[in-house]
């Protein structure tokens, strides 16, 4: 099957954009799982343990948003445009229906996709995310800038602060996650540019100020995951999503922050596979 750290980067054109993507797992049978990426992330930011684990049972695909990483075009500054791009990418790949795994900003994109093109989506996993207008989403930039500064002052990756708690368990999980992200040694993706990062912050600010959508129309099964101490997208947003989505299941990991699925990947992967295979 290969491993995520060895998956070649490919390109496909859609809507005037050359999207960079990687895929892994069997193409035969089942519904493809499309991964929607978080703020400032490129293909190399996906945890290899999650990608390899889900690819053992499913065809998984991740791509760079327009103007991010190796994808062409100007970076988008709205979640709605990112959803349109994701729909164009999925259709260009020839998929009639997909499952969506959206982490953080990717979970917001997933919500827009299912509202715009409900027939395209079979199931969704939403991790570390929240609804439009959710608590604290419009101020993600403030949290991000502060933790970027903390990272600079301590010589650490900001994700150690943004994604994980400052308890012994959270700190160790963060170090292990960051080490896994470095396992791919060749043909790595391009880092996000400052311009693209700022565009995404504008998108999150607008999403956080947007009027909440009527999610009662979403009939697809949804698995909602978060940690009990998410600083980036406060955990209350996960409870709000579970209340708004009529066919949803909520699971909260203890002693975990925004990156709970990475911290508890050994539990999350079988949980996700069971949900997708239900």
Question: What is the gist of this entry?
Answer:
This is Putative non-heme bromoperoxidase BpoC. This protein has 278 residues and is α/β, with parallel strands linked by helices.
User: What structural category do the secondary elements indicate?
Assistant: alpha/beta
CATH domain topology: Rossmann fold
Largest sheet: 8 strands, mixed
Stretches with pLDDT under 50, minimum 5 residues: none
What is the number of helical segments per DSSP (H or I, 4+ residues)? 10
Could you state the CATH homologous superfamily? Answer: Alpha/Beta hydrolase fold, catalytic domain
Overall pLDDT level: 95
Distance between the termini: 23 Å
Oligomeric state of shown chains = single chain
Number of DSSP strands? 8
- Residue share in β-strands: 15-25%
Q: Would you list the SSEs in sequence order as H and E?
A: EEEHEHEHEHHHHEHEHH
> What number of domains?
1
Molecular structure report:
With 278 residues, the protein is α/β, with parallel strands linked by helices. It has 10 helices and 8 strands. It is globular. It has a single domain (4-277), classed as 3-Layer(aba) Sandwich (Rossmann fold). The chain has an 8-stranded mixed sheet with strand order 1-2-4-3-5-6-7-8, with helices on both faces. The chain has helices spanning 48-55, 79-92, 105-116, 140-154, 159-162, 168-181, 194-209, 236-244, 260-263, 265-277; strands at residues 10-14, 17-24, 33-36, 60-63, 98-103, 121-127, 222-227, 248-253. Helix 1 packs parallel to helix 10 (265-277) and helix 2 crosses helix 3 (105-116). Helix 3 links the parallel strand 5 (98-103) and strand 6.
């Amino acid at each position: 099957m290969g491993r995520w750290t060895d998956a070649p980067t490919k390109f496909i054109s859609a809507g005037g954009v050359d999207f960079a993507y990687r895929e892994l797992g069997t193409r035969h049978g089942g519904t493809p799982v499309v991964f929607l990426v978080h703020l400032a992330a490129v293909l190399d930011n996906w945890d290899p343990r999650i990608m390899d684990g889900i690819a053992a049972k499913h065809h998984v695909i991740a791509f760079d948003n327009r103007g991010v990483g190796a994808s062409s075009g100007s970076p988008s500054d709205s979640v709605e445009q990112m959803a349109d791009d994701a729909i164009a990418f999925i259709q260009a790949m020839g998929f009639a229906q997909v499952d969506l795994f959206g982490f953080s900003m990717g979970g917001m994109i997933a919500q827009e996709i299912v509202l715009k093109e409900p027939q395209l989506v079979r199931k969704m996993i939403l991790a570390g995310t929240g609804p439009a207008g959710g608590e604290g989403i419009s101020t993600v930039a403030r949290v991000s800038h502060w933790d970027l500064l903390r990272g600079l002052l301590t010589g650490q990756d900001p994700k150690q602060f943004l994604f994980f708690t400052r308890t012994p368990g959270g700190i160790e999980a963060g170090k292990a996650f960051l080490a896994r992200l470095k396992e791919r040694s060749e043909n790595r993706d391009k880092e996000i540019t400052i311009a693209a990062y700022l565009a995404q912050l504008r998108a999150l600010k607008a999403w956080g100020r947007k009027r909440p959508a009527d999610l009662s129309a979403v009939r697809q099964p949804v698995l909602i995951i978060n940690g009990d101490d998410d600083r980036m997208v406060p955990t209350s947003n996960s409870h709000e999503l579970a209340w708004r989505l009529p066919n949803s299941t909520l699971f909260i990991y203890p002693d975990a922050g925004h990156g709970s699925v990475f911290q508890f990947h050994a539990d999350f992967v079988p949980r996700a596979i069971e949900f997708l295979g239900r």
